Amino acid sequence: MTILIIGLIIFLGLHSLRVVADPWRTRQVAALGEMRWKGLYSAVSIGSLALVIWGFSLARVGAPVLWVAPMGLHYVTALLVFVSFVLLTAAYVPGTRIKAALGHPMTLGVMIWAVAHLLSAGSLADVLLFGSFLVWAAAVYTAARRRDRAAGTQPPAGRLARDAVVLVISAVAWIALAAGAHQWLFGLRPFA
Predict the structure, then answer these.
(1) What integer is the mean pLDDT of 82-97?
(2) Alpha helices in 63-159 (DSSP H)
(3) Of 110, 122, 149, 164, whose CB neighbour count within 10 A is largest?
């Protein structure tokens, strides 16, 4: 569990800088330049995400099971994961009504993804991984919405056609994951 915890601390800590240390972050961007900052940020993100993935794969092996979800709950998880895919995709497709309505759909998508997995995965390693992401996403979303309100930020109105693009991309990704990519990537079949 140690590697997983270290990876989570680095990854989620790095992705919390705007919330907990924005003045420091701003100084670093100014000192290093935006491109160097983004390069360093990306390198640390990739490295710490690799630690999270490696640590989770190690922790899962002997982790105590805290609960076993009933089989029907896996279908609720699958539906919630699809919703999270829609929200994650909406964060990166410009001009969606989803982003206009929610402001920060990526962090909402992470929250729903985490809740979905906590419903059906009950080992200590699962709770540590998905619970950490849930708490992080909730804190970041709350801080971002507060920052938007303080700045008077209004996202531009979106178009329905862009939302349709989001739904198609999300459906293709979700089907690919359900059809075998989840097992290939994570060693688990979602509907098994």
Answers:
(1) 94
(2) 73-92, 97-102, 105-120, 124-151
(3) 110
Q: Same structural domain for residues 25 and 69?
A: no
Task: Say yes or no: 14 and 52 in one domain.
Answer: yes
DSSP track, 106-127: HHHHHHHHHHHHHHH--BHHHH
Q: What is the mean pLDDT of residues 114-143?
A: 95
Whether the CB-CB separation of 26 and 67 falls below 8 Å is answered with no
| pLDDT tens for each residue of 59-73 | 999 899 999 988 888
* C-alpha to C-alpha distances, 192 to 91, 119, 171, 188, nearest whole angstrom: 30, 15, 20, 8
Asked which of 21, 44, 62 is the last residue of a domain, the reply is 62
Q: Which of 43, 62, 81 is the last residue of a domain?
A: 62
* Confidence at residue 192, expressed as pLDDT on a 0 to 100 scale: 65
Report CA 60 to chain centroid distance, whole Å: 19
Q: Domain range spanning residue 189?
A: 65-192
Shared domain check, 75 and 33: no
Q: What is the pLDDT of residue 181?
A: 83
